[in-house]
Amino acid sequence: MRVVHVGSEVFPFSRTGGLGDVLAALPAVQARLGAEVAVVSPWYAGLGGEPGEVWRGDVPGVGPVRVGELREGDVRFLFVGMAEFERPGLYHPDDVWRFCAFGRAVLPVLQALEITPDVLHGHDWQAGLVVAHARLTGWRTAFTIHNLQYQGRWNLGEARGWTGLPDWAFGQDGVEFYGDLNLMKAGLTFADHVTTVSPTYAQEITTPQYGEGLDGLLVRLSLEGRLSGIINGLDQERWDPRHDPDILPYTDPAGKAANTAALRAEFRLDDLPILGTVSRLADQKGMDLLIEALPDLVGDWNVVVLGGGDPLLTAALQGWALHPRVAFTQGMNEPLAHRIYAGADAFAMPSRFEPCGLSQMISMRYGTLPVVRETGGLADTVPHDVGFRFGDATPQALAAACGKARAAFDDPEGWRERMARGMELDFSWDGPARQYLALYTHLQPQE
What we know:
Elements: E1 2-6, H1 18-32, E2 36-42, E3 52-59, E4 63-72, E5 75-81, H2 95-112, E6 119-123, H3 128-137, E7 140-145, E8 153-155, H4 156-163, E9 176-177, E10 180-182, H5 183-190, E11 193-196, H6 199-204, H7 215-223, E12 227-229, H8 257-266, E13 274-278, H9 287-297, E14 302-307, H10 311-320, E15 326-330, H11 334-343, E16 346-349, H12 359-365, E17 369-373, H13 376-381, E18 388-390, H14 395-409, H15 412-424, H16 430-441
Helix pairs in contact: 1-16, 2-3, 3-5, 8-11, 9-10, 9-14
């Protein structure tokens, strides 16, 4: 099985979030299972690595392109360099234009390198145009939605010439979306099969509440058997409390206590249990719900928050950090994230929607019990006998679930049993990687 994954970022070379983690872990496991795997991503300025150049040439409609290669284990990482990606940083306001250029360059690059995959697998809207061109070339294609909220839209009149697509592709059954080019819709429309990163999210996005305007198309894909959900895995070597260099390693619930004591000392907290959160400060993540619930929470919990994003949410948390039971660190700090996962007693994820989520998996692996909204991947991964789930996206529902967790904490034996069950859960990539390989073998190209 020859597989080419295409995405906008890949850890450790380029990363802003979970997509980069997926494009590191999934290809590696698929290669271990016997597939021949390559990953294609932009060659950003400041890329975390020094690719060796393997090809240089002019791509019609794009211009000069160079390709670099790095190998990690049995996976080839190919980086497509062009003028559009020579500025600092990964993402910019004109990304639709930039990723149209990338989308037109990928297939000519693969053909120049004599790479003909059995399946081209695109990830999120930045790869939507690649999937469209692959379909027009006759290749089998899969497309994964990591977050439907981000779609890659631009005024169609201006963007039409950027894509290299034939005229017939610009109708309502193609890439047009309310007068815009929509690169997410390009991936959905042209892929032989569409997946998303949890079974529950695959169901949710067929509804107006979660479908982001694309629910009609997604309903049709579901009825045709072309939409499914495969839960993401977790890099269990990177997130392993037994060998984590950023914490005091431990193997069982009893060993966690030293990390809790260290986190308590780091932030000068009192003896109440610790509720932690590591998150983007965004509406999707429900951080406003957590802030509104703080007056109820600080009576039972110390609250430790790490994250960055929305300035209003940031300012609110900075204000709350004056309270002796609230600690807030702005930005992302990976060693501190590890210390929070290891040291907190419970972990809050009040997401309005969550395609998959990794924090709940990490927290359970570290014996930190999640308090989560019952949506998307949170509903699929947090067992009732481990964590605490709530339905309504309100501060009252979050506070009530935290109240249940606090009552459970007062039963030390029952709490330890929940911790032990969580730490034993298997979130490895082996199962999802096998599911994707099985899916590839059954892909039927559209007529």
